[in-house]
């Protein structure tokens, strides 16, 4: 970086800064952070639609974004050795070289600490505790231990993935609401096929990095069968919001349509010899539609 700025003058400084920003963004996994934030926001809207909670909502969102970004960056540092062996993660490894492990670690810790300080000072202790639980289960239980030692590590990764709705609810109400628990359960189940579709697609990568994902340890057919089972379960789970009276029949219709569409796409993709990207992309689209439907239903209903 320094060489380029000395050799090419001021304009190259801008270029190197751009590289740093892009690299930081890659390490921070913005797609996952956005989805996590949307799931927390959905729970906030469902827990309390009163205007006076706007400030707590804002603090809650800030805490989730900071903690999830910090956790993602820390994960990128902790996993650099295995990431280096995966074709899918070439750009992330390059990003870590550009930023540097020490700087990335300092930024990650600063982001997580800021989230905890803001939560403890301006929100409440339940939110702070849940944020600590999310960061600890992601970085210690999943990243540093179970991801590399068991194919069921995905269930450990699904814990921090499912916690943001609880964090959102805790931030605006001070407690964990029933709809936030239902949403956390929906996301927990959703994550399994979401990850297995990706693992099926990048099987050679995971084998090369010796990460024991389900299709590597128990075969492709069992993975496909369990993924399909989870996708089938998603529609009844998503309907619990309607059955328990939290959401309208219009929401229930949307949940049935999007659940059926997801299932059809998965079946088409799964019965191919080699799973392609459709089921994985459909998983992201499915969750996005369900979350937006829940939010719209709360505002309209
Ligand atoms: C067990 C838990 C989970 C695992 C193992 C997992 C794994 C992954 C992986 C490996 C990717 C690919 C990232 C990349 O290509 O850089 C991904 C992408 C994604 N995941 Fe997950 N995920 C999990 C949970 C979640 C949760 C809880 C959410 C949201 C609430 C989520 C939302 C997304 C989104 C939106 C993307 C696309 C990101 C992008 O393309 O930038 N994931 N996930
Ligand atoms: C509020 C807070 C601290 C939330 C943390 C939640 C969080 C970032 C959850 C991510 C879930 C997850 C296991 C993602 C990717 O897996 P991976 O790391 O195995 O993906 P990779 O193969 O791309 O590294």
From TrEMBL:
<dbReference type="InterPro" id="IPR044878">
    <property type="entry name" value="UbiA_sf"/>
</dbReference>
<protein>
    <recommendedName>
        <fullName>Protoheme IX farnesyltransferase</fullName>
        <ecNumber>2.5.1.141</ecNumber>
    </recommendedName>
</protein>
<feature type="transmembrane region" description="Helical">
    <location>
        <begin position="58"/>
        <end position="78"/>
    </location>
</feature>
<feature type="transmembrane region" description="Helical">
    <location>
        <begin position="152"/>
        <end position="172"/>
    </location>
</feature>
<dbReference type="InterPro" id="IPR006369">
    <property type="entry name" value="Protohaem_IX_farnesylTrfase"/>
</dbReference>
<feature type="transmembrane region" description="Helical">
    <location>
        <begin position="178"/>
        <end position="199"/>
    </location>
</feature>
<dbReference type="GO" id="GO:0048034">
    <property type="term" value="P:heme O biosynthetic process"/>
</dbReference>
<comment type="function">
    <text>Converts heme B (protoheme IX) to heme O by substitution of the vinyl group on carbon 2 of heme B porphyrin ring with a hydroxyethyl farnesyl side group.</text>
</comment>
<comment type="similarity">
    <text>Belongs to the UbiA prenyltransferase family. Protoheme IX farnesyltransferase subfamily.</text>
</comment>
<keyword id="KW-1003">Cell membrane</keyword>
<dbReference type="Pfam" id="PF01040">
    <property type="entry name" value="UbiA"/>
</dbReference>
<feature type="transmembrane region" description="Helical">
    <location>
        <begin position="125"/>
        <end position="145"/>
    </location>
</feature>
<comment type="pathway">
    <text>Porphyrin-containing compound metabolism; heme O biosynthesis; heme O from protoheme: step 1/1.</text>
</comment>
<keyword id="KW-0808">Transferase</keyword>
<dbReference type="GO" id="GO:0008495">
    <property type="term" value="F:protoheme IX farnesyltransferase activity"/>
</dbReference>
<keyword id="KW-0472">Membrane</keyword>
<feature type="transmembrane region" description="Helical">
    <location>
        <begin position="283"/>
        <end position="300"/>
    </location>
</feature>
<keyword id="KW-0812">Transmembrane</keyword>
<feature type="transmembrane region" description="Helical">
    <location>
        <begin position="98"/>
        <end position="119"/>
    </location>
</feature>
<dbReference type="GO" id="GO:0005886">
    <property type="term" value="C:plasma membrane"/>
</dbReference>
<keyword id="KW-0350">Heme biosynthesis</keyword>
<feature type="transmembrane region" description="Helical">
    <location>
        <begin position="251"/>
        <end position="271"/>
    </location>
</feature>
<dbReference type="InterPro" id="IPR000537">
    <property type="entry name" value="UbiA_prenyltransferase"/>
</dbReference>
<feature type="transmembrane region" description="Helical">
    <location>
        <begin position="225"/>
        <end position="245"/>
    </location>
</feature>
<keyword id="KW-1133">Transmembrane helix</keyword>
